[in-house]
Amino acid sequence: MTSHVPGPRGRAVIPLLIVLLGVALGAGGMLLLRAFGAFSTDAPSGVTGRSGAQSLNAQAVYDRLQPSIIDVTSTLRYDDETASGTGFVIDGRPALVLTNNHVVRDATSVVATVTSTGKSYPARIVGVDVGADIAVLQLQGATGLTAAPIGDSAAVTLGTPVLAIGNQAGQDGPPTIAPGIINSMNRTIQANDGASGFTETLHGMLQTSAQIEPGDSGGPLADAAGAVIGVDTAAGAGSPTAGYAIPIDAAMAVARQIAAGRAAPGITLGVGGFLGVVVPSTTSPDPRLQAQGERGLRLGGAQVQPPGCLDTEAAAGVPAAVAPARSGALVDGVLCGTGAAAAGITAGDVITAAAGHRVASPDVLTAIVSACRPGTLIPVSWVATSGARRTSMVLIDAAPAA
């Protein structure tokens, strides 16, 4: 089940949120260091914490954290994309990894590579909190992983030396590093991923002069002791010297709830069901009004839905005909290889019931299917463009990550 959001086709993306609103930088010097396998044990000039602590030893911090760093590669099958980011181990025994939600957003499969060994594992999405931009993954079949030392972001002060570690440009291999300082705290930012138009507002962020770049998303921001005090998340628009990280206290609070399987507002555990139809995102019950809304979104240049199933969601258009149903969920397109395609549902059909529930609108259908367990069969009823009424048992797939 997916709402129709046009997007790019057939490409690799390197997730990084870009702050949309101008943010004033605090005072503080910065030393840039961005080279694969190259490290500096010299302290960044003039950088000391408010407490007078010695400057950060980049090599020592890297050595402590490198065994826990994970390269994350997400396949976005229905967007025809792959995305690369970073994560770090928070529990070695069940092999749990923390990363940003936007690294795995829309993922249909995830592979995690332990940078210290080069070994790759399929990763299960344990849960996500979209509003907090946090996701927890479990590496399938991984043993003996080293958890990152977790610090205390509440103890961070202005001027604290830090090191951002990540998978710069999604090139994999040895992690890259960027030293800097904390130059502002408790920031509220509005950020955009620059690819799909996904936008989110994040609160309580740490601002750093460490240069956070594409591919670093989900990586650790560490203090001079080599403990993680933040999760690399965003860069400042127009300013390569401003980066933003989620404080580790907030990130771990969410991660612990997800790992414990505790439902909470904003948290999605696992992944929901997926029917494989592209539908408008609307609460309108009238399929014809839904079609008119789709045409309106395209500013009058309506793209007529091509025949057959679709390889990507972006290929969906406006159906050439709409089934004669008074209410339900209009199908803009059906994705190839899904349960809906196997059942014979096509563009222009209107789904009227699913899993024993009446479908009053596309949003209702999305909610019904999302609550179904992947791998189960559910009855789905629909009205075809010919007016024929049909019902079939449809296999529910795993939905792309939220």
How would you explain this protein's 3D organization?
- The chain is mainly β and 402 residues long.
- 12% of the residues lie in helices and 35% in strands.
- The chain has helices spanning 58-65, 101-104, 248-259, 287-297, 339-343, 362-370; strands at 2-3, 11-13, 17-19, 69-76, 81-91, 96-99, 109-114, 120-129, 134-139, 161-166, 176-192, 199-208, 220-222, 228-236, 239-247, 267-269, 273-274, 277-279, 329-330, 333-334, 350-354, 357-358, 377-383, 389-395, 397-398.
- The strands form five sheets. Strands 3, 10, 11, 12, 13, 14 and 15 form a seven-stranded mixed sheet that branches. It has a six-stranded antiparallel beta barrel with strand order 4-5-6-9-8-7.
- The longest helix is centred in the middle third of the chain and has 12 residues, at 248-259.
- The model is unreliable at 3-10, 22-54 and 298-302 (pLDDT under 50).
Low-confidence stretches: 3-10, 22-54, 298-302
E-strand count: 25
CATH class of the largest domain: Mainly Beta
Q: For the residues shown, what is the average pLDDT?
A: 83
- Taken as a percent bin, the fraction of beta residues is 35-45%
Domain count: the total is 2
CATH topology annotation of the largest domain: Thrombin, subunit H
Shape, per Cα inertia axes: elongated
Fraction of residues in H or I helices: 10-25%
Radius of gyration: 23 Å
